[in-house]
Write a structure and sequence with these properties.
41 residues; mainly alpha; 0% strand
Length: 41
């Protein structure tokens, strides 16, 4: 039982890390675009 939970936690944490990185990159892209629009206007 504990082995299954540990495996699940590991896999979920890996997926969570990938999702967090993807969200972070997306947020940075949006922020830079907004800043570029503000500076050009």
């Amino acid at each position: 039982m504990t082995c299954v939970l540990n495996r699940r936690q590991r896999g979920f944490s890996l997926i969570e890390l990938m999702v967090a990185i993807a969200l972070g990159l997306f947020l940075m892209l949006v922020m830079t675009r907004l800043m570029a629009q503000q500076s050009s206007a």
